[in-house]
């Protein structure tokens, strides 16, 4: 697969699993790069040959099946029935939470159901910031949602232009974060099997940025990162 990630050259990355044929593949690609260059458009898009990046190939360990016993513990009504975004009821950011069980793609009006319980204290959350004029920003946090939200508000107050919403608030809303709202989109749950929860969080953030077209106005995201899928 080709990635838009660049390192030191302007070419794409060719990402593949390491194998005994790896160096042959690299050679074939480099020696045939002139085919790409024979096309004027492709020559402009891909001025340099790709940098080859190898992923670790599956090991015996990966192929062995882990023991898995389903969680038979009786869950409380809290876990069973509460899903959606809620205020925690005891923090200063509650007023900025949009309580909801579903959320909309603001372009298509398609409705999505929140996949679990999210409140100010939830961790590993993909969230959406919303301003009064309809602009939005998709973000994620592995810390408590209220901690990350507080950073966004502080960035607005201090005109920190590293934060796209802060830039927007300086231009349109007089750097006053009191109107900023936040909504939970997805919570990454711990699984019985474990696994890389942070990686899944990053993947889901990328998914929602892509799905909501958050890099196009009124979306305010400035970048999308496909590396979590490599
Ligand atoms: Zn709260
Ligand atoms: Zn706005």
Automatic annotation (TrEMBL):
It comes from Coilia grayii (Gray's grenadier anchovy). Residues 122-203 form the GIY-YIG domain. The lineage of its organism: Eukaryota, Metazoa, Chordata, Craniata, Vertebrata. CDD domains: GIY-YIG_PLEs. It comes from the Eukaryota. InterPro entries: GIY-YIG_endonuc, GIY-YIG_endonuc_sf. This is GIY-YIG domain-containing protein.
